[in-house]
Amino acid sequence: MAQAKHISDPQGKKMSCSKAGGSPPPSVEQDQSSNEMDIKNICFVGAGHVGAPSATVLAFFNPALHINVVDISEALVRRWNSNSRHLPLNDEQGLCDLVRVTRDGTLPTLLWTDDDGAMERPGRKPNLVFSNDVKGGVREADMVFLCVETPTRSEGEGAGMAADTGSLEKAVKDVARWAKEGVIVVLKSTVPVGMARRVREMISMIRPTLSFEVLSNPEFLAEGEAVRNLLEPDRVLIGLSMTSTGHAAALALADIYTTWIDQEKIQKISNTSAELAKLTANAMLAQRISSINTISAICERTGAEIAEVQTALGSDNRIGAHFLQAGIGFGGSCFQKDVLNLVHLATSLDLRDAGDYWLQVLQINRFQTRNFVQRVISRLDGSLADKKVAIFGWTFKKGTSDARETRSFHVVKELLKEPVKEITIFDPGCDLADIRAAIRSPGGLESGKSECPNSNVTVHDNPYSACQEADAVLILTDWEQFRCLPDPERPSVANPKDHGVGAASSPASYISLGHTASSGVRSIISKLSIRDSPEQNDRSNAFTNPLGHLKPELPCPADCRDCNNKTSLPMSADVQVDWKRVSTKVKSPGWVFDGRNMVNVGEMQKLGFRVEAIGKASVWESDAY
Ligand SMILES: NC(=O)c1ccc[n+]([C@@H]2O[C@H](COP(=O)([O-])OP(=O)(O)OC[C@H]3O[C@@H](n4cnc5c(N)ncnc54)[C@H](O)[C@@H]3O)[C@@H](O)[C@H]2O)c1
Ligand SMILES: O=c1ccn([C@@H]2O[C@H](COP(=O)(O)OP(=O)(O)O[C@H]3O[C@H](CO)[C@@H](O)[C@H](O)[C@H]3O)[C@@H](O)[C@H]2O)c(=O)[nH]1
Fold first, then answer.
1. 326 is in an annotated binding site
2. pLDDT of 17 over the 60 cut
3. What Gene Ontology molecular-function terms does this entry list (predicted)?
4. Which of 409, 413, 440, 603 is the most buried (most CB within 10 A)?
């Protein structure tokens, strides 16, 4: 077991958690520094997009803590324990190496000093364990982070609006049943406002004698940037109940974060404020996208150019340049559900106008997708009968293999309302099997086939077969691979299958990715090298420079299930679509509908394409469609 991490207050007094049902102290202003909690063992419940990267980064910077990550999914845990070829989330740059360091430990290495001497840097013991043992993980823990999914409820009261907290409640029951005295429960999932209070009530009801605290610690990482966001968050919110034990628990959590995050970034606020701030952050980001998308539609009809408008807006410091990229609408597992959650909250508080305001953000998102599809149909002579449409991009954004709530799905669904002859789908980062599963899922695209019995949707592992004889290519995800740049030196894909799975997860590619545009990896490298300084090492004892220390991996066993279930990512991240080659495949006049403003229209025209771009009036027909 790793050495105990001792978290103490400046005055060194001790205080244990109070019973949940106990009466709160008279004032929140009382002695907030008089607490000491001995955190040695942490459990993360949920090894998904949030739980696993959060646990890994926390384990990395806190080598003295033991971290268990537990999940009910056997397949997922098997992959977290596998050879790095099969690690989940291998599109999260830097994550694979951090997992290897923390899960496997490291070897001692020699370091060269300034005077050409050498000193041995000791290896590091493993302190991260993935398992399905929820009971064991919770039982040992001084602190439990709940990181399970909270999708929109599909049935019952609030269906289609409220968050489904079923998985969270199940995890809370497990905590109530098995947790030890004094446990700190940390809500990392995005939850409805009031959830911390409900969790407190649930636990006290199930186990009235247990002493515990509940903190809200919503996560703000974005997929594809998880490691960078976790290393350098804009802020860390710690929501607490304003009691002395609440403060003590918040202090214990803050002390763990300050092993790598500046104290000033940690905001201690009430549980309710933290819950509402998380929903509002996502709602406001979504709102900006919907706002700019309405303007892009106006641009298309007036001749104004969205790129110019965006630059003008973004250079106003009060507005800022982020989240002003017009497109076919926002996707992903969070924005829609969190806006709906906010609408549901406002409506349930009898604030109908406030709810309607946020609902409009989602209506505009749907409008934007329909508007784009209408434009496609209009340019293709008002009918898709006998037309083949090639979709470039399935994931909800670049840099992730995740296609939850992707707008591409909705575009294809809209297209299938027409008697379209054929739709092909190509995505450079999404597992082909996942795309096929989404098409076949209940409510998936095949349900559209009844409206369009002759339709034919196929998934391709390269862009060239997808666009063979296509009447139009639709760019729906902002993958860098789709850019058409005036650079004759840029490599093209001779055989896309040469650049396969795992490219982003081997140590070699970690280094090679460092010189690409990856700010995530650069950020890790710079953080790690900063921590080479003795002062930094003393502060947290954190391990540095994992690249020289990684333990060699054992090959997969002959019967490795994950080798047999091999995923197939078609292209590597630094290879562009060869648009010249595409131009030889598609049907004349070479329509390209750029839903993410990825291609350089001038360059594409030189190749003979007709491009219709978001937020740009058509140069091919003067009349509005
Ligand atoms: N995905 C993101 O980028 C992101 C970012 C910030 C916040 N969030 C929020 O974080 C939460 C988790 O999101 P996610 O994307 O990581 O979800 P996910 O689906 O990727 O992972 C959730 C995991 O929890 C496991 N799980 C469910 N119930 C369990 C239980 N009772 N015991 C043990 N394991 C259980 C599931 O098997 C799954 O692996 C959600 O509330 C989400 O809104 C997500
Ligand atoms: O200017 C922009 C920016 C984004 N998008 C789209 O918006 C969606 C969401 O993008 P992004 O926010 O980058 O991805 P997520 O991984 O969904 O992250 C969001 O949702 C997470 C889950 O709550 C939060 O933690 C993050 O802070 C929040 O950015 C994607 O479809 C993007 O293509 C645009 O259309 N225009």
1. yes
2. no
3. NAD binding; UDP-glucose 6-dehydrogenase activity
4. 409
